[in-house]
Amino acid sequence: MGETEKKEDLEMMFRDLEEVIEKMEDSDVTLEQSFELYDRGMKLLKKCNQTIDEVEKKVLVLDEDGETHEF
Questions:
Q1: What's the pTM?
Q2: Distance between CA atoms of residues 60 and 37, nearest Å
Q3: Whole-angstrom Cα distance, residue 12 to residue 18?
Q4: Long-range contacts of 20-28, Cβ-Cβ distance < 8 Å, separation of 24 or more
Q5: How far, rounded to the nearest angstrom, does the alpha carbon of residue 41 sit from its chain's CA centroid?
Q6: For the residues 42-71, what does the mean pLDDT come to?
Q7: Is 62 a residue whose pLDDT tops 80?
Q8: Which of 8, 30, 45, 65 has its CA 20 to 30 A from that of 38?
Q9: Could you report the per-residue pLDDT of 21-42, keeping only the tens digit for each?
Q10: Are 37 and 26 in contact (CB under 8 A)?
Q11: What residues does each domain of the chain span?
Q12: What spatial distance separates the first Cα and last Cα of the chain, rounded to whole Å?
């Protein structure tokens, strides 16, 4: 999976998280639905964190000698 695909996937996951939050804020949501939404949100958040970690590991840092090292 390329970085562009990961970026699009990450953006899609963020949109899904926003949708989950909006639904949880709805006063018509039952307690059971709230727990399901919370579970879905936590799984999405975990996937987001994993994707961000993968991207961060690929970031290169330029040191004072002009050499690059993985972040």
A1: 0.69
A2: 37
A3: 10
A4: 20/44
A5: 10
A6: 78
A7: no
A8: 8
A9: 999 999 899 999 999 999 999 9
A10: no
A11: 3-70
A12: 20
